[in-house]
Write a structure and sequence with these properties.
- The complex is a heterodimer.
- Chain A is built from 21 helices and no strands.
- Chain B is mainly α.
- Chain B is built from 23 helices and no strands.
- The longest helix of chain B is centred in the C-terminal third of the chain and has 30 residues.
- Chain B starts with a helix and ends with a helix.
- Classes of the chains: A mainly alpha, B mainly alpha.
- The interface between A and B is medium-sized, with 31 and 32 residues.
């Protein structure tokens, strides 16, 4: 059997295992990668140096460190509770508020951690108000994924695309943020309509919320201030990273080291809370896709696509829709890692501006597509996981009935946006 | 290259190391700060790129460390170390000196076959456990292990990564190493035992009190999961065989370790999140940061500058050159971890060989110096860093002062033996 076929087989089998979730996805990815390296289908040093995108890993690590410390200070908890208070216990305004902060936090920080903190608080609030958490959780899943699409660092697909295509933080802001605002607004509006019966509440219960003191959520006031400062500086660094010639990973790690220095927390404790399995998952995927690309299969696939149609608009739209649907069912990250080499090949014959549009199409498709089901992104799965223990858990079926149509609508809006803005 | 670049880079380097040794902030954070700083300076001033920084990281060393840490973690959960601890106490019958000898000699012997860090990853947890059971301070035992591990590991080709690198660069075989380095290493080893006897004379005088209780313990009961233990030991034997066959297979140490780790994970199937959580990330990131820092120093031209100075100083006098290499190596690797130090010295010696010098004795001087020099400070060797790091979780963390208490004399002995060996046996080393 030719090595190409073996590599393809290993690739497909690994991806199937990842999607089916029979074994932990990190284990699957690393095993797949390990098999390739062991049987010399990919030389070890090459696997490491060429295919593993350390800029992505470094960026993820840096932001994870910053988020872990911010979490310790009680930043997220404070924000969520403050929102509930400002909303004066009104369920709709609470949903709106929580969703907005989820979106904003997700845009700048890791979605999983954001959701890990906001969801338990949401459940507490909805329990106190005697309401079903369903509208709130659905909205937060959507907000996390949509909000994260706005920046380079917000969503894993963006980080992956940004690193592979060398797009800057500002590039993402200028091109995707406007779309994100539109899609988020439309989505929230529609959620209001879909859930219109759900927002009444007894005044007595509202009182409960108004009386919570958000200041108690702050675990360490000084640390909160320090971490917000460093966070702000890091974002500033992101805005100018291109000018300084520094890659996003360097900026993120700079911020992380700075915060570690200032916070005086034992680094060992911080490192224990980092999502290492996620980082290794990415590494495994990189090696898998890299070896597939090495066989030349992806290049051939790209060639056949450009052979079918010369219209860049059509290619973009195809990319957008296919990546959205695939992302919903196989997961945004595996999809993006797999499609990046393909888009690179597709873009090779085209001038720079047109290649960029292909990347935006992929980013939009992968990020928004992840909203379609509860398995589309890690953040969605985390929300499902947390709500599992609640008396009315968010199930795959309950979510997909709302998430999928909204996702398809968001892709429709994106298609229009692509057409109007770039063609 | 403008002259201010090496100066600035040198300052960053010195400041970082000073910060690390001062123990005012955690060494990993200091190292990370230094690394980030030198990368940013490098990018702005044009002498070091982010890609070069990544290339400077020796993933072979990190992979080896990581792979072994995983196996050790899985093994620890089976209660294996508790077993070893009880066994050791029984064999030594509660006599502290006998215990120290047992642990020290075992460490030295194992270090000759397996890299030092792996050895420590097995010995240190066992030691900490048994010290806890006996109610004694583990530091004398841990220091013994760290020091003797570095010494033992110097004697063979497979003993530690620096030797692997030197052996590869100079084309030395396993036997070459044993013939040339075992004699001086053995002398240093014996003298070190005397030093340790002296340094820890107070602890050796008192025999621990809990011995009776432990003598009555059944060590077999310590192993809670015999099946998993069996699987781990199987993986370990595979790794051991592969390590010994390194020359034939051409496999990198890290590949062997990662293979072993994968084998263990496949056989045992633990939760990846738990296992990854317990890896000593502080140590791995520390090394990664140091590699990046030293890479920056190299690119700033400091190493080649020093090399040229050295050549100018020693001329074609082989004895002087060998002595210089040895002394620079032993003191340099005391401060800078042996692995990056060796990485920096290898091109230097190759550079010197280009000027017509017979560099064979220089390689030996390097191997001996780097091997023994690792004992100079807690950060001089990976084994040292890991030992200190593990000790920080107990009630008796090893501080710089504590380390120097026993290591300074050992270093003195090492320097003297090394110089004598070179001066009197230079011909044998050529």
């Amino acid at each position: 059997m030719s090595p190409t076929l073996i590599i393809l087989a290993v690739f497909v089998v690994t991806y199937v295992f990842i999607i089916l979730e029979k074994i932990h996805r990190t284990t699957a990815a690393l095993l797949g990668a390990g098999i390739l390296v062991f049987f010399n289908l990919l030389p070890f040093s090459e696997a490491f140096e060429e295919y593993v995108d350390f800029n992505v890993l470094g960026l993820l690590l840096g932001m994870m460190i910053i988020v872990t410390i911010m979490k310790r200070a009680g930043t997220f908890q404070y924000a969520a509770i403050k929102v509930a208070r400002i909303a004066r216990g009104n369920p709709w305004y609470i949903l709106l508020g929580l969703s907005l902060i989820t979106a904003v936090f997700s845009a700048f920080l890791d979605n999983v951690t954001t959701v890990l903190i906001i969801v338990p608080i949401t459940l507490l609030i909805t329990d106190a108000l005697g309401k079903s958490p369903l509208p709130f959780l659905v909205s937060e899943v959507l907000a996390a994924n949509i909000g994260g699409t706005a920046t380079l660092i917000g969503d894993p697909p963006n980080i992956l695309v940004g690193s592979a295509a060398n797009l800057s933080f500002n590039d993402f802001l200028i091109n995707l943020a406007p779309l994100v605002i539109i899609v988020l607004a439309v989505t929230l509006l529609l959620l209001r309509i879909i859930f219109r019966g759900h927002f009444g509440v007894r005044a007595k219960l509202q009182e409960r919320i108004i009386r919570i003191d958000e200041k108690k959520a702050i675990k360490d006031r000084l640390l909160l201030k320090k971490s917000l400062w460093v966070f702000g500086l890091t974002i500033l660094g992101f805005l100018f990273h291109h000018k300084f010639g520094l890659r996003p990973a360097t900026i993120a790690l700079m911020g992380a080291v700075f915060l570690l220095l200032l916070s005086k927390i034992d680094p060992g404790e911080v490192f224990r809370e980092i999502e290492w399995p996620t980082l290794f998952f990415f590494a495994g995927l990189f090696i898998l896709v890299g070896s597939l690309e090495r066989t030349g299969l992806i290049e051939r696939l790209g060639g056949s696509i450009t052979g079918l149609t010369r219209s860049p608009l059509l290619i973009c739209l195809l990319l957008l829709w296919i990546s959205a649907l695939a992302s919903a069912f196989m997961g945004a990250v595996p999809l993006t890692v797999a499609l990046i080499p393909l888009v690179k090949h597709l873009g090779m014959g085209l001038p720079l501006e047109e290649t960029a549009v292909l990347w935006w199409a992929l980013a939009m498709g992968a990020c928004f597509g992840g909203c379609g089901t509860l398995v589309g992104t890690a953040a969605s799965m985390v929300v499902a996981g947390i709500s599992e223990k609640h008396r009315s858990p968010l199930t795959f079926r309950k979510y997909i009935r709302i998430g999928m149509p909204l996702m398809l609508l968001s892709i429709l809006i994106s298609s229009l946006y692509l057409y109007l803005r770039y063609f | 290259m403008p002259p201010y670049i090496p100066i600035i880079a040198g300052l960053v380097f010195v400041a970082t190391y000073a910060l690390i040794l001062s123990e005012k902030i955690h060494r990993t954070i200091a190292a990370l700060a230094g690394a980030i700083l030198i990368v940013i300076l490098g990018v702005r001033l044009g002498f070091y790129s982010q890609e070069e920084a990544l290339e400077a990281v020796d993933f072979n060393t990190l992979g080896l460390l990581f792979g072994m840490m995983i196996i050790v973690n899985v093994l620890a959960r089976t209660g294996f170390f508790r077993y070893l601890a009880i066994r050791s106490v029984k064999i030594s019958r509660g006599n502290f000196w006998r215990l120290l000898l047992l642990l020290g000699i075992t460490t030295a012997l194992v270090s000759m076959l397996v890299d030092n860090v792996t050895t420590i990853l097995f010995m240190a947890p066992t030691t900490i456990l048994l010290a806890d059971m006996l109610g004694i301070n583990p530091v004398p035992l841990l220091m013994t292990e760290a020091l003797l591990s570095n010494i033992g590991g110097t004697a063979t080709l497979v003993g530690d990564p620096p030797n692997v690198m030197i052996g590869s660069a100079a084309n030395f075989t396993f036997n070459d190493f044993v013939i040339h380095l075992l004699p001086p290493v053995l002398v240093v080893f014996l003298f070190s035992l005397l030093v340790l006897r002296f340094t820890f004379r107070r602890e050796i005088g008192k025999n621990p009190e809990n011995t009776e209780r432990i003598m009555r313990m059944k060590e077999n009961e310590a192993v809670k999961d015999k099946k998993t233990l069996g699987k781990c030991l199987f993986s370990l034997s595979v790794i051991l065989v592969l390590f010994l066959l390194q020359e034939r297979t051409g496999l990198l140490p890290s590949s062997v370790a990662l293979l072993g780790a994968t084998l263990t994970l496949v056989l045992v199937r633990p939760d990846p999140k738990e296992i990854l959580r317990d890896v000593e990330w502080v140590v791995l990131l520390f090394f990664a940061a140091l590699f990046i820092l030293i890479g920056g120093i190299e690119k700033a031209g400091i190493i080649s500058f020093l090399g040229t100075k050295m050549i100018g100083f020693t001329g074609s006098n082989l004895l002087l050159a060998t002595l210089t290499v040895f002394l620079v190596a032993i003191f340099g690797s005391a401060i800078i971890d042996r692995v990056p130090f060796t990485i920096a010295m290898i091109p230097l010696i190759k550079y010197m060989s280009a000027s017509g010098l017979n560099v064979t004795p220089l390689w030996w001087g390097l191997a001996l110096g780097v091997g023994l020099g690792g004992n100079g400070t807690p950060i001089g060797s990976s084994a040292g860093v890991v030992t200190v790091s593990l000790s920080e979780r107990t009630r008796n963390p090893i501080s710089l002062k504590e380390w120097l208490k026993s290591s300074s004399l050992v270093m003195l002995v090492s320097v003297i033996v090394g110089v004598i060996t070179i001066v009197f046996f230079l011909r044998l080393f050529s």
